[in-house]
Amino acid sequence: MGVLMSRVAIVGVGWYGFKPTTIDVSFQDMMFESSARAYANAKIDPRYDVDAFVDCQEDMWEGIAISDEFAPEPIGGALRPTFTVAGDGLEGIAHAYMLIKTGHFNVVSVESHGKPSEIKTLQDIYRFALDPLHVRPLDYVNPLFYAGLDAVAYMKRTGAKREHLAMVAVKNKNNGLSNERASFSTRIDLDYVLSSSYSIYPMTNYEIAPFSDASITFVLANEDYAKKLTENPVWIEGIGYSTETGTGATEWHEWGKMKSFRSAALMAYKMANLNGNPQVDFAEIEDRFSFMELLALEETMLVKEGEAHKMLEKGDLNRDGFLPVNPSGGSLSMGVQLEATGLSRLLEAYLQLTGKAGNHQLKNVRRGLVASWRGVPTYTSMVALLSV
Amino acid sequence: MSSKINKLPGIKLKEKEMYSLIGLVEDMPQAKYDFAAGTTISKFLEGLKEGKILGRKCPKCGRIFVPPRSYCEWCHVATNEWIEVPQTGEIHTAVITYISTKREKIERPEVVGTIKLDVPGYRDGEYEFAGLFHKICVDPQDVISGKAIGMKVKVRWKPKEERKGNILDIECFEPL
Amino acid sequence: MRSNIFMKDRVAIVGAGITTFMRRALETPRELAWEAAKMALDSAGLTLSDIDCVVIGSAPDTFDGMHLKGEYLGDGSGAINKPMTRVYVGGGTGVFVPESAYWHVASGVCKKVLVVAEEKMSPAHPHPQYVFKYIWDPIIERPLGPNLLWIFAMEMRRYMAKCGAKKEDIALVSVKNKRNALDHPAALTAANITVDDVLKSETLVWPVNLLDVSPVTDGAAALIMTSENVAREITDSPVWVDGIGFTLENQHWYNRELAFPRYLNYAARMAYKMAGIERPWKEIDVAEPYDPFDYKELHHIEGLMLARPCEAWKLVREGYFDRNGELPTSPSGGLLGVGNPIAAAGLMKVAELFWQLRYEAGKRQVKKPVHKAVANAWGDLMQAGTVIVLSN
Question: Which residues of B touch C149 (CB under 8 A)?
């Protein structure tokens, strides 16, 4: 079997945190804990068995310029082939996938972490991602307004109502109740959300994901190694990522859509030799803003355009529905861990497929989709298709 | 390239031109962070307050780390033992700085360098060692002549009442 | 890592572009990225619609004054509705971007990759040096008020002490590179200077003087990298990527011997192994070692095993590394002569080797015939080593 034909699998995972604050540990301690658990899970010694280490982080989230300085030690990558990707953890998975596919690397680990609780001026860091010439001088109070613009445009285009956005929050916040990583899960009903005041029109506070601290590490391997290392490998059938436009060129963005999801999904499906809808058993889909779950479902072509809110209304997206979406509770329940957000969703999909999701385990799942976005103000998304 | 292309893109500006550009936006990030030191470094800092230098030992390879780490980067296992290390060592390298962090000239040049502490227990020869990066109270001339490199030094502590539990509790390293 | 792998498809460089290197550019970072990318596309006879993936390299976000800088550079780098990723290993990024592009192509995921590196250091005020304050450990190092130059000076001092090199020996590298740069159209600090000029320039952190250091620079560079089949269609003279190597040392630089760059040596061994090179000092014809400081070129020549440890400074005196010497290093003029827009400077070095291997470097073309070439970059707190081996 040729190298390029060899499949790539997830063979181990470790995580630490998923709490609103982690004052007792430094970010390096968090990275060490999650990576040590991942290597234990994969039954390997990182100092000998891992051929390359990928770390995903951004300088200003870390509060350190050139933050990759701190990457190698805690993940076992000191004096080894280690590098960082300034992007979401799922981009790191894409790099690991490609490294393995070259045939030069057998086992690659991917770590990402976020410690938003240490950032005192989070809003201003977001502001610093906006174009300095056209956007910053306008002095918006909250850079998350971009999401509001997309939400309104999406509702107008598809006929989804404000109630549908609230329904996403109700579903996900309740789903999270049986997930140990869902710090923000809560028992709420539709009336409760609808009677709350708007944070960013048309969304209330319950429809915007809060932040949490976490570190997550994945170990990936080629087919030969995967079969040696574990009895239940989870195969990466396809992975895609795409950028619609730069943060300074919003004029290219199609409001109310998220083309990067579509491009990333097409890339992943092509890799998996599929056309269109991949027939998945469940999905872990971007939901840091409630409307994004509906939008991303349509853009990844899991459901037809304009149908997502109708399916939601019918209960098709519930845990016992036709297509369970975010059985973990999603980011609305688990929070956003900055660049680790994509990996937190991949983690949930991995646990489902290996039957280790605990109280929120779905029955008979063989294939799942993960879709994540880098958040405001970016137009970059990642999609991964997994199967057992 | 040079045979085919004569002019490269790019428009140069003088400093004055840049600051008189129309539409120049001045902006300053309000980036503030609270870094958790973690239990290991916190204990190290407490040690400094008490006039001690604490190291941490790896159970697998036996290396003693100063500054301490909660894990061994060479074995990827958690370290498990505190060890108070000697406050003496030798200068590995030293330089004289004439400029500040912001690259302004400073009045009195300072000597800074790295110190290899007298800590035994390293198996891998001389490449890695326990040590600190700090100010060194030696004559700048000794840095230029090379006398300072390899010189034996010890810690000069700040007076006890002024110590706050940070790296500046060590005033500098001075000749033994 | 497996080294004797059967490869269906080699990876080639087929085009390169570069902007002028400037102290202050009128262009925004996005425009700089676009200018370099456009030139690279033109040189390969391609348009943006031919490109299927984009890899971006850029060092600290704070220079350009942008958070999520990769996302900001997206449209300028041609990443509209395309897979775009930004890789990052501090100063080592410049050489690392084509390495990353290598696995984009070698994996079969992409066929034609646009590689862009951009840096605009001039927006930082009052001086870009201040940005480097934030590279230090916030608890153990930052309270000492360090300046980035300190760590280089310490390394240089250690190299001098261990190897017996003097400041005037090391200054020869600056003289050589600034002279080489006189022939580079992008050069910012090309000059005919003497060792005395270096020694008499302002002392910043002894033993580092102003002319030992590369300048603050704005600029961008770009490459086009493709699979073998595509390359054969585009050009008769593709330049092949034979090997890639990268290593990150531990972050505790003061717990290490500074006289020899182990971070680079490990990366070089990885790249040579992949390229099947056993005696680099004999097999490499031309090199672009990373030279943000003059001693650093010597340091890196030794790390790349092009000279024995502590011997490079002696060879430089003999003219061994001159453009018409036995093993020309930094024929472009390097960072000292052309300028140092961090990530773009590293990519400029790879672009130079591309031109050298195609005999297109004009006045800069080295005298001897060239077949194999190596470039490296360094980054972080004496940690990141990135190495790429090319051939024609």
Answer: 97, 99
Residue B114 phi, psi dihedral angles, 5° rounding:
-115, 145
Q: What whole-number distance in Å separates Cα of residue A231 and Cα of residue C1?
A: 24
Could you tell me the pTM of the whole model? 0.95
CB pair distance less than 8 Å for A60 and B35:
no
Helix, strand, or coil (residue C244):
strand
| Nearest CB to A87; choose among C75, C85, C132 | C85
For the stretch B14-24, pLDDT in tens is: 888 888 888 78
ipTM of the complex: 0.95
Residues 6+ apart with CB under 8 A from C374: C268, C271, C280, C284, C287, C288, C304, C306, C353, C387, C388, C389, C390
Q: What is the pLDDT of residue C250?
A: 92
The answer to whether the Cβ–Cβ distance between A248 and C87 falls below 8 Å is no
Angle at B41 between CA B39 and CA B47, to 5 degrees: 105
The residue extents of the domains of chain A are 3-120+212-229
pLDDT tens-digit readout, C124-171: 876 776 667 777 888 888 888 888 889 999 999 999 999 999 999 999
Kindly report the number of other CB atoms within 10 A of residue C70's CB atom: 31
| Cα of C298 to nearest chain A Cα, Å | 21
Instruction: Look up the CATH superfamily of A3-120+212-229.
Output: Thiolase/Chalcone synthase (3.40.47.10)
DSSP-assigned states of every residue in A44-99: --HHHH-SEEEEE--HHHHTSTTGGGGSTGGGT-TTBSEEEESS-HHHHHHHHHHH
User: Is B149 within 8 Å of chain C by CB?
Assistant: yes
Which fold would CATH assign to domain C11-125+215-391? Peroxisomal Thiolase; Chain A, domain 1 (3.40.47)
Q: Does A388 touch chain B (CB under 8 A)?
A: no
Q: What is each CA distance from A50 to A38, A53, A77, B89, in whole angstroms?
A: 12, 7, 9, 36
Q: Nearest CB to C27: which of B10, B73, B127? A: B10
Answer yes or no: do C107 and A102 touch at CB < 8 A. Answer: yes
The interaxial angle of helices A290-299 and A259-271, nearest 10 deg, is: 50
**How many other C-beta atoms are found inside a 10 Å radius of the C-beta of residue A258?**
27
- Encode pLDDT of A9-24 as tens digits: 999 999 999 999 998 8
